[in-house]
């Protein structure tokens, strides 16, 4: 249960900190943190929770990461379902907290006819810069694949594990710097689901892509690291 609570709280923090920065601070008049600030916020959520609870659960905070670690031989299949449920529950509760805070502002309403509604992900008309479904899928696939390569490499027993959290947090920051204009950046199905549940409408109908593409990329990343990059004891 401690592992599941760690994943719950870690994913809650990721969504609250990352999506919260996008909702509250990104476009704040004159002093907004912008794309770079949101990217850094997502990276910091993972970095801080990696050191806070990573030693308890492994610090996945993302269904695609759990699945990719399984593909890479680092995680048990029997724990996948419980981890993913905990991650989704934490993400949805965080989105609910954000919704309640935003509801305290006069005139607040989610306009789910526009890209990025409630920090949701999307493609086509719901991509921040109008990228197609194919472009969005490719971006999410490639970025999640490399995210898994970085995670597996940084946490390899031959690597310097003390700085793994820094490498992973900076990787997520870089991923957001690249892809916020394309999809508003997912690489995390739980993060996408949580915002889409509250946005509803088209963002919710498009959430499938932000499950399929990251999971497919994570599976390939895990497989590639295990078969092509992982160092054996005899090497």
UniProtKB/TrEMBL annotation:
InterPro entries: Aquaporin-like (IPR023271), Aquaporin_transptr (IPR034294), MIP (IPR000425), MIP_CS (IPR022357). One of its GO terms (molecular function) is channel activity. It is found in: Membrane. It comes from the Bacteria. The keyword Cell membrane applies. It is a multi-pass membrane protein. Belongs to the MIP/aquaporin (TC 1.A.8) family. This is Aquaporin Z. It comes from Flavobacterium humi. The gene is aqpZ.
């Amino acid at each position: 249960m401690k592992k599941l609570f760690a994943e719950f709280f870690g994913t809650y923090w990721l969504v609250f900190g990352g999506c919260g920065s996008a909702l509250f601070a990104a476009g704040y008049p004159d002093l907004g943190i912008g794309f770079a600030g949101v990217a850094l916020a997502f990276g910091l959520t993972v970095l801080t929770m990696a050191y806070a609870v990573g030693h308890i659960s492994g610090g996945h905070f993302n269904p695609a990461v759990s699945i990719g670690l399984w593909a890479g031989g680092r995680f048990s299949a029997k724990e996948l379902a419980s981890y993913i449920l905990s991650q989704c529950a934490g993400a949805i509760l965080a989105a609910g907290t954000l919704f309640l805070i935003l509801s305290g502002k006069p005139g607040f309403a989610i306009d789910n006819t526009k890209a990025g509604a409630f920090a949701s992900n999307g493609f086509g008309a719901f991509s921040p810069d109008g990228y197609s479904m194919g472009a969005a899928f490719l971006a999410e696939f490639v970025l999640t694949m490399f995210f898994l390569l970085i995670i597996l490499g940084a946490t390899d027993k031959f690597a310097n594990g003390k700085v793994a959290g820094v490498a992973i947090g900076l990787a997520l920051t870089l991923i957001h710097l690249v892809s916020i204009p394309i999809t508003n950046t997912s690489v995390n199905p739980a993060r996408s689901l949580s915002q889409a549940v509250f946005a509803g409408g088209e963002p919710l109908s498009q959430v499938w892509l932000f499950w399929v593409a990251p999971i497919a990329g994570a599976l390939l990343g895990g497989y590639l690291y295990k078969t092509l990059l992982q160092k054996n004891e005899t090497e």
